[in-house]
């Protein structure tokens, strides 16, 4: 029998929940690819609750200079639509949501946790929606395509159900008009998010109508405490409409990766900016759009897949001499994984 875990949590002294840090050969790395492959070390991503007031101990996995000003925290909470009265559903509570968990814990709302990593025989989208209904959730965060798949699976029958949710937060992947309209059948609003474990929530916007003007890949306006710019190869700031590398400054930015000098030098710049490997542009409304990655990765829905890790695993299979993994365009998932084998 499936169990939905409901918790009501209030934490007075809040640090930051660092998502998915794993130890690989003595190095600390973020578990975007590791979560997807589920194969590094013991195969379990570690969720780290780091108290910003405690500088030593086993939880000091990512060195942090977290500065959660009360005003910034409250503004972010307001944008995300989470209040103390919310019944908040999250199907990846210790996964890739970066800054979300700390914000939610700070509010002290009721959380309904559904673990998407547990294999199930039934349709997951239907299972997730049934859990939302049973627990009368009002706010949910999940991957972009879940509600789109749910609409397809039910042949549009959800459109006749009342809008149970006040808000659905989506991030870590592209959102287009079709997905927006699908979510709009079950929620009063959609919150798009640009976030990372290193810098928490960097940009967001709230959409209140499935039919309102919306450009695909838009993540929203910079959040309080965040500064975003698009730069060329010489680090010159570019005007509206130019697609190049995104640089971010954030009051919630971590100070680096432990035991990884090269990654620190490549990622954290002397002016306080962080290079996350994302490419994008600002539109005429001053909203940031993320359209791709500079790094050798494949973006499949909400997951960042590292080709080298997949190639290493596949080449260990009998009869495979060599392999190359690449991403191919796919409308619903942004990219799909394609393996070329010899």
UniProtKB/TrEMBL annotation:
It comes from the Eukaryota. Pfam families: AMP-binding (PF00501). Residues 103-257 form the AMP-dependent synthetase/ligase domain. Keywords: Ligase. The keyword Ligase applies. One of its GO terms (molecular function) is ligase activity. PANTHER family: AMP-BINDING DOMAIN-CONTAINING PROTEIN, BETA-N-ACETYLHEXOSAMINIDASE. This is Cyclohexanecarboxylate-coa ligase. It comes from Plakobranchus ocellatus. The lineage of its organism: Eukaryota, Metazoa, Spiralia, Lophotrochozoa, Mollusca.
């Amino acid at each position: 029998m499936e169990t939905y875990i409901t918790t009501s949590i209030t934490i007075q002294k809040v640090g930051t929940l660092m998502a998915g840090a794993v130890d690989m050969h003595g190095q600390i790395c973020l578990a975007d690819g590791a979560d997807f492959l589920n194969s590094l070390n013991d195969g379990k991503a570690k969720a780290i609750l780091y108290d910003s007031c405690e500088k030593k101990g086993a939880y000091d996995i990512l060195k942090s200079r977290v500065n959660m000003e009360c005003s910034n925290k409250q503004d972010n909470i307001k944008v995300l639509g989470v209040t103390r009265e919310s019944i908040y559903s999250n199907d990846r509570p210790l996964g890739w949501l970066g800054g979300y968990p700390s914000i939610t814990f700070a509010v002290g709302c009721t959380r309904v946790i559904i673990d998407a990593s547990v294999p199930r025989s039934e349709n997951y989208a239907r299972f997730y929606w049934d859990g939302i209904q049973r627990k009368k959730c009002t706010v949910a965060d999940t991957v972009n395509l879940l509600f789109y798949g749910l609409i397809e699976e039910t042949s549009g029958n959800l459109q006749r159900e009342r809008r149970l949710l006040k808000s659905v937060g989506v991030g870590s992947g592209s959102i287009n008009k079709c997905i927006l309209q699908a979510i709009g059948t079950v929620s009063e609003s959609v919150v798009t998010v640009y976030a990372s474990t290193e810098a928490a929530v960097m940009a967001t916007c709230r959409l209140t109508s499935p039919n309102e003007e919306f450009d695909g890949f838009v993540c929203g306006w910079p959040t309080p405490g965040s500064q975003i710019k698009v730069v060329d190869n010489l680090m010159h700031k570019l005007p509206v409409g130019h697609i190049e590398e995104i640089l971010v400054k954030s009051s919630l930015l971590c100070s680096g990766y432990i035991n990884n000098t090269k990654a620190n030098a490549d990622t954290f710049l002397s002016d306080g900016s962080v290079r996350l490997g994302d490419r994008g542009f600002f539109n005429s409304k001053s909203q940031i759009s993320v359209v791709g990655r500079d790094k050798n990765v494949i973006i499949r829905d909400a997951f960042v897949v590292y080709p080298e890790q997949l190639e290493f695993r596949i080449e260990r299979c009998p009869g495979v001499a060599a392999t190359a993994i690449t991403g191919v365009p796919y409308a619903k998932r942004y990219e799909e994984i394609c393996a070329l084998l010899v």
